[in-house]
Amino acid sequence: MAKKVALRDWAKEISKVLFDCAKAPTTGTAAPFPWQELSAALARTFAIEGLSITLASMRWAEPDEFLSGIGRKPQVQALRFSPLQGSAHWIIAEGELKSLMGWLVTKEKSKLQLPEKAMEDAFYTFLCLETLHTLDAHAFFKGCTPTMSDGDSLPREAGLLVDANVSIGGHKIATRVLISPELYKDWMKTHAAADASGSIPDDLADSIEAILHVEIGKTRLGFEEWGSVKTGDCLLLDTCSAKPGDTSFPVTLSVGGVPLWRGLVQNGQLAIQDSIQVREV
Length: 281
Fold this sequence. Notes:
The chain has 281 residues and is of the alpha+beta class. The chain has two domains: 16-198, Chemotaxis protein chec, CATH 3.40.1550; 210-222 and 237-281, no CATH class. 30% of the residues lie in helices and 29% in strands. The protein is built from seven helices and twelve strands. It has helices at 16-22, 35-46, 94-106, 117-137, 181-198, 202-207, 223-228, and strands at 52-61, 74-82, 88-93, 145-149, 159-168, 171-179, 212-215, 217-218, 239-240, 248-255, 258-266, 269-275. The strands form three sheets. The protein has a six-stranded antiparallel sheet. α2 (35-46) packs across α4 (117-137). The longest helix has 21 residues, at 117-137. The two termini are 46 Å apart. Residues 1-12 and 22-29 have low confidence and may be disordered.
């Protein structure tokens, strides 16, 4: 009869968001986004002095958090970055959008009030198109063409929220971009491939020597304990992935004390399986 094991008091439920993050490529690092250059380019496009866009926060979130804290009546515009898979969504509260439109038209702090909703929608489309044209013209997303897309339905799985503040004349306007997991993974995969091939010249890479450690177990010893260890002593490991006589067992590969890959030893041969590095976003 199977014995039911109760969870310890300290056991916590792991958020699904962490599993979504783990699925993303873990090699390569996307270059910091040039917010200052984007601000200057958009300031020229819309003829507004002092326009500044700064990053407020960036985090993975569940679908029920996509619109949290964005304000009343959020306006959503779907975006595509061809040829990458997935989509992005620009999200801004209706009040913030009218404030932004007011600055663009009057160059003063005011909320734009147009007589018809159709005119407001047309101006919103104009704002999106001019912004995307600026992004494309200045190659802020190399190898990708940003375009508007039909539909405003948000992804049904966790995505990356990028909150940014648009500052004009001392007034801040909050805006948000939601990046779908498909777009994020495809972008990182493309960037990682380019970064891996061009970061170190091949002739230099061939001449670099590094000591690779293969770890099957570990234990922790205090300084005094380590000083008393002698050749021939038996050490009991806290964890171990192999048993005596095993011909197949997992290992961890590390360089300079940093674990980098998971591997598998099978019949005397070692195969690298995947990366275990965690990249902060």
